[in-house]
Design brief:
This protein is mainly α and 507 residues long. 54% of the residues lie in helices and 6% in strands. The strands form four sheets. It has a two-stranded antiparallel sheet with strand order 1-8. The chain starts with 18 loop residues before the first strand and ends with a strand.
């Protein structure tokens, strides 16, 4: 099957999803042409169009004159998809989006550390069963995924107005030759069929199983180390996370072009800063906690890369009975033919299915370990707090924090790169060390914390330079990252928007 040409921007509807070229490699997420870099990790669901020679307009619901920055009232930003278009198509908007994701992930990670510490070590009940805690939090994540999908549909009109319609959970894919309604036609059950986002498809389960295995091992080993070692020892045992991510990005993700000296230097500086901020006597530890932390570092480093690669496979897994008629065929990868649905629901469905199948398979993989580790029998004999509402409320809060790190981490990795996702975890370690110590760190601890924050800023500046985005912009809110004719506003002309021999990635 031959590669098809990209549709013209002027012929796309308001619900079309932009298709931007992306070079091989999962770190950095950029594509270079004629010496210029195009930021294409997360293109806007509302691509800009050229009208009367102007490049800063957007098509949405038939409207062609919407300019970023126009309108006197603040409410104009929340109408006709203006906010979403600004976030994905302008430099300041994209920087704001990434900054919000970084803050959200650091906050969720801090909340999760506090909750797990309260549940397993310092709380009233001290529930010292890390594998069972992992299972219970995974169950809460699955519940919150279903709740989030329902809420996204309930507020679909608001999300459309904000320009965030691509996050609305899609309904089940209609099957051909379906004979009338069945007992699954009730809306609350349709999502649990094989064509729904919360159903079970054996083919998709096989695709997601490797990343679910990595995710399960990471969670179990991390919680095991956290339960049986002091927080400082837990942080030190996982210190190899960032260096391993750099190695996996180079060898596994085929990073091309390779990481710059600035990125490598800032990453190593952040690693050493994490060591300094975690050195805090007394050095009391158990070998179980240290070994669990060291082993979890390997899985934590490979998890975001595996998750991103699995997403591409899930996106490419569209059986023929899921394709509506008159659907355009677009070659996403030389080895896979992806039938992209013009209304963007295929991309949204891939996101939701990836999160659901990863979490659901992790629950299935974790459940046997609760019995094989002996925690189930130990709880039946020695645990007397399972009927206390406060304990289950703490478990729910821990699951809520886990949901934030699970969903927010995936969005951050998809928007930036796997290395950036783990670099944010390094920043979280420096911040949580300062907060949980009551701002009473030794001299070397404060040196490590300040060095880590400086390394984070250094990393951010280096990565923005690599993808060709100015931190402060040029002072013009209408400055675009990408337009339909391949013009980069802060650079020169990069050529037309035809794919040529490069891969296409639907984001």
């Amino acid at each position: 099957m031959s590669r098809s040409q990209s549709p013209s921007w002027d012929t796309m509807t308001s619900n079309s999803v932009a298709l931007l070229p992306l070079g091989s490699g999962s770190g950095g997420g950029n594509w270079k042409s004629n010496g210029h870099t195009l930021l294409s990790r997360t293109p806007s669901p509302y691509p800009p169009s050229r009208v009367n020679g102007e490049e800063d307009t957007v098509q949405n619901s038939g409207s062609r004159g919407l300019r970023v920055g126009s309108g006197n009232a603040l409410g104009s930003w929340f109408k006709k998809g203006k906010l979403g278009w600004w976030l994905w198509n302008t430099q300041r908007g994209w920087i704001s989006l990434v900054s919000a994701l970084v803050i959200f992930n650091i906050g969720s990670g801090l909340f999760l550390v506090l909750q797990n510490q309260f549940i397993m070590r310092t709380g009233v009940y001290k529930f010292g069963f890390p594998i069972t805690t992992t299972l219970l939090e995974l169950l809460v994540i699955e519940f919150l995924l279903m709740l989030t999908a329902s809420l996204s549909r309930s507020f679909s009109s608001t999300l459309h107005s904000l320009g965030l319609s691509h996050i609305i959970a899609p309904g089940p894919t209609p099957l051909k030759n379906k004979k009338g309604p069945s007992k699954w036609s009730v809306p609350m059950f349709e999502d649990w069929t094989s064509s729904g986002i919360f159903g079970f498809d054996f083919r998709l389960a096989q695709i997601v199983l490797p990343v679910a295995t990595i995710y399960t091992a990471m969670l179990i080993l991390s919680n095991f180390s956290f339960a049986y070692a002091l927080r400082q020892i837990y942080q030190l045992s996982r210190i190899a996370n960032l260096p391993l991510t750099v190695l996996f990005t180079y060898f596994w993700a085929n990073q091309n072009p390779p990481l710059s000296v600035t990125t490598l230097s800032s990453t190593l500086t952040l690693t050493f800063a994490t060591v300094m901020v975690s050195i805090h006597p007394p050095y009391l530890f158990t070998w179980e906690g240290v070994v669990g932390g060291i082993c979890s570092s390997f899985f934590a480093a490979g998890y975001p890369i595996a998750l991103l690669n699995t997403y591409k496979k899930v996106l490419g897994n569209h059986p023929s009975h899921d394709r509506p008629e008159h659907e355009e065929e677009i070659l996403i990868d030389p080895s896979n033919t992806v039938y992209f649905q013009g209304d963007g629901k295929s991309v949204s469905r891939a996101h939701w299915r990836l999160l659901h199948y990863t979490n659901m398979l992790s629950i299935i993989l974790t459940l046997p370990w609760v019995f094989m580790s002996g925690e189930a029998g130990n709880m039946s004999r020695n645990c007397y707090i399972l009927d206390i509402p406060w304990f289950w409320f703490m478990i729910f809060l821990g699951g809520l924090a886990s949901w934030g790190t699970f969903v927010g981490g995936w969005i951050l990795v998809k928007t930036t790169s796997p290395l950036t996702g783990n670099a944010v975890n390094g920043l979280q370690v420096t911040i949580q060390s300062v907060m949980l110590s009551g701002f009473k760190l030794p001299e070397w601890g404060w040196t490590g914390a300040i060095t880590g924050w400086a390394a984070g800023v250094w990393y951010m500046l280096g990565r923005r330079r690599e993808v060709g985005v100015s931190l402060w912009g040029s002072g013009d809110e209408r400055e675009l990252l990408w337009d339909g004719d391949g013009v980069q506003e802060d650079g020169g002309r990069t050529g037309n928007n035809e794919p040529g021999e490069d891969e296409w990635l639907v984001s």
